[in-house]
Design brief:
Largest sheet: none
Distance between the termini: 18 Å
Number of strands: 0
Number of helices: 13
Strand content: under 5%
Structural class: mainly alpha
Order of helices and strands: HHHHHHHHHHHHH
Shape: globular
């Protein structure tokens, strides 16, 4: 009876993975339509609005509340795990040093790629980038054992999942790993209260954790204070602006993080990291919520304009900051993202 229940639950996750995979393809087609206009009746920014202002807007909140759910249904994760599910993966194992190098590369990729959003804003550019990443995810998943290559390795989103997902609301079954093959140690999916600092076995891991936890809040602040360039060529000619302010913010909060680690004992490092995690996600929604709802100078997603509601922007910002500091820093819980297979 228990096996039947497990099979039915796994089938639900498989259906969800297929639905999200094709939904991802739908997002790509919508963004492609923004540039190529093969369906003229759809507004020429609909695809980008749906991708950046719906999916990407909701992602950090999902990482904080239920990272295991996202790990189960992420289209890129599904793509990377196809080789294992089809039993064609080479299953190359990694040692701690390689795991640390992969984690450091994922952090560097995140810092390199995110500012380019201000440069390459066309739907076609995003489609090309995402298809390229999907191909890379499949190849890495084909080469390496389990999730070690992509989902817990080179994926640029992985560091953000670890930063925000320390205290998940729910645990879910692991829909990609029917059995544990010890592909990474510690396993991000099944370790209670996982943090970016959980793997300190290699110098690369320690360095990656340090620059990501300490620098990410300032990086997020800097990113939101850089405007999109009106043309692609103008953006590529001003990369010093595109990267300058995010990296300045990165340097400032990294120095603050370093000072705090010098002032307090090592046993307080995890709590300091939680404060920086809450600061980063709070900063993200500080800017994104008003822009989504049309509380800034421009209209929000799909023409929303709530700017006439007095003090709504200030109220929502206060609520979001309070919530995330309570959720990540103050609230006590002891859960992993997913149940160990």
């Amino acid at each position: 009876m228990e096996k039947e229940v497990l099979k039915s639950r796994l089938m639900i996750w498989r259906i969800s993975q297929v639905v999200l995979f094709f939904l991802g393809i739908g997002f790509l087609l919508l963004m492609l339509n923004d540039s190529l206009r093969f369906i003229s009746s759809i507004p020429d920014t609909f695809g980008r609005d749906a991708f950046w202002n719906v999916l990407i807007f909701a992602a950090p909140l999902l990482f904080a509340l239920a990272p295991g759910v996202w790990r189960n249904i992420c289209p890129m994760g599904t793509t990377s795990m196809l080789a294992r599910h089809l039993s064609i993966s080479k299953g190359k194992e990694q040692n701690q040093k390689t795991q640390g190098i992969f984690y450091l590369i994922s952090v560097i990729l995140l810092y390199m790629l995110v500012p380019l959003r201000h440069v390459e804003t066309s739907g076609l550019s995003v489609v090309i980038a995402l298809v390229g990443v999907a191909i890379l995810a499949f190849i890495i998943g084909y080469i390496y054992l389990g999730k070690s290559g992509w989902c817990s390795g080179l994926c640029p989103v992985y560091p953000v999942e670890k930063l925000y997902g320390t205290k998940p609301l729910v645990q879910v079954p692991n829909a990609h790993c029917p059995t544990c093959v010890n592909c990474v140690m510690p396993c991000a999916d099944s370790t209670d209260n996982i943090t970016p600092s959980s793997n300190q076995e290699s110098a690369a891991s320690r360095f990656a954790s340090f620059i990501f936890v300490g620098g990410f809040p300032g990086f997020v602040w800097g990113w939101f204070n850089v405007a999109d360039f009106p043309s692609r060529m103008e953006g590529w000619k001003n990369l010093e602006i595109v990267y300058g302010l995010p990296m300045l913010g990165f340097a400032v909060t990294l120095i603050v993080y370093w000072i705090l680690r010098r002032l307090f004992e090592e046993k307080n490092y995890s709590q300091i990291s939680l404060v920086f995690a809450a600061a980063a996600i709070s900063c993200y929604y500080w800017y994104r919520i008003p822009s989504i709802l049309g509380l800034m100078e421009d209209r929000g997603v799909f023409g929303l304009d709530l700017s006439s509601i007095m003090y709504l922007k200030e109220l929502l910002r206060t609520i979001s900051v309070t919530f995330f500091f309570w959720w990540i820093v103050i609230r006590n819980t002891n859960k992993s993202w997913e149940y160990r297979p």
